[in-house]
Amino acid sequence: MATIPQGVTYRIFFKIITVLFYQLIGKIFQPAIFAPNFATMKCIAMIPARYAATRFPAKLMQLLGNKTVIRHTYDNTVATGLFDQVMVVTDSQVIFEEITSNGGSAKMSVKEHESGSDRIAEAVEDIEVDIVINVQGDEPFVKKELSSTVGSEAWNSRDLKSRPH
Question: Do the beta carbons of residue 119 and residue 11 sit within 8 Å?
Answer without folding.
Answer: no
